[in-house]
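Lecture notes, unit on binding sites. The following record was shown on slide 14. It pairs a sequence with nicotinamide-adenine-dinucleotide.
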Amino acid sequence: MRRPTTIAPPKGKLGVMTVGMGAVATTFMAGVELVRKKMSQPVGSLTQMGTIRLGKRTDGRTPLISEFLPLAGLDDLVFGGWDIFPDSAYEAAAHAAVLSPEDLAKAKRFLSGIKPMKAAFDRDYVKRLDGKHVKKARNKYDLALQIKDDIKRFAKTSKASRLVMIWAGSTEIFLKPGDVHSTIKKFEEGMKKNNPAIAPSMLYAWAAITSGVPFANGAPNLTVDLPAMQELARQHNVPICGKDFKTGQTLVKTILAPGLKARMIGLNGWFSTNILGNRDGEVLEDPGSFKTKEESKLGALEYIMQPKLYPQLYGNMCHKVKINYYPPRGDNKEGWDNIDIFGWMGYPMQIKVDFLCRDSILAAPIVLDLMLFMDLAKRAGMHGIQEWLSFYFKSPMCAPQLYPEHDLFIQSMKLKNTLRWMMGEELITHLGSEYYD
Ligand SMILES: NC(=O)c1ccc[n+]([C@@H]2O[C@H](COP(=O)([O-])OP(=O)(O)OC[C@H]3O[C@@H](n4cnc5c(N)ncnc54)[C@H](O)[C@@H]3O)[C@@H](O)[C@H]2O)c1
């Protein structure tokens, strides 16, 4: 990809469209509103709190990322989206019970004004959900065209000059890429013939890309991780990224695992189990949806440890992931990790992690950063897979000839170097030889 020579300024409003207005989407919207009202802090958001070093360590140039790049400001964000339930963002946030009643009350007026449009939904793809706020159509192609109409209408009513879309909907059943996903033509014919390998999330993605709207995928569904969608994104000059927000247990895993590997500490096994009681957990009780999530969660460790390169250290590693739906915990997940490691002369040791985490609190700043960076990428003329945003994902999308990069620290370096590259700044290698004779 060539370096962007110009980046169009972020003039006017940026319309953020969320597919699904559940726990993650409403926590994100409420947080943005409270930050705008100076009642809260955007903790966890790189675009709002992060800095970036430019030039030499002795130069003393470390601006905020938001000052370095022409990102959309929070005051310019407007929100819309879809859900299979007609509840406003306020009602959905109250149901999700992520935020305290006090915080929700502060955002009540704002959230009550955000009402979802009717969803493109099919129970065959999310078995544990049933809602009536859904579109009717002859076939999947018609459904996708209705989504395109929604996009146009939202741009008009919200007076947004630019749009971005994110899948924050439920995890769909496990699907494998097939012939129907291989080309744009086959995919579009497949929509007209109601091909079962085309899930609702793909209809939103098709509608977004063909409308020139960047699309990010926060769930482990295939959605845009398909040749047809990638070709479509190139044709329409649209950035896409995914998949599955990296929060909670996988975030911790991709922080710890690179550290163990960097020091050549051996690993016999990593057992991860969770209890969670939100709607996401309920959906994941269905074996089809769980399989999609499990595949996404299992990938990270194999890629980070590279057992083929280090057979003595990681060749016999056993990795298991369990998710248990346990309603009393609501959105407050508890994730346990038992890590069996070994050191010098093969002596065994153990690490235990007990993470009492809040899923949507960790996911909300990711949504914000993705939306601002995807808008930036579009204004910079970047299109197709945005691998530099791997930092935010459990199953990062990448070009077919590459393996995905899971190590959080490599991902972070890649992201910051991409920002420097976009702005014509020198890349930072951390070599540092220039400071010594
Ligand atoms: N919270 C996290 O830390 C985290 C991490 C990684 C991935 N995710 C993924 O993000 C997604 C959202 O998580 P959540 O906790 O907000 O779940 P949620 O169940 O609270 O919200 C999902 C919403 O999507 C709606 N929905 C489902 N299918 C739809 C469709 N076809 N069109 C429109 N709306 C649809 C549901 O009605 C629901 O309101 C899930 O797929 C989850 O797996 C979340």
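Take-home: The chain has a mean pLDDT of 95.
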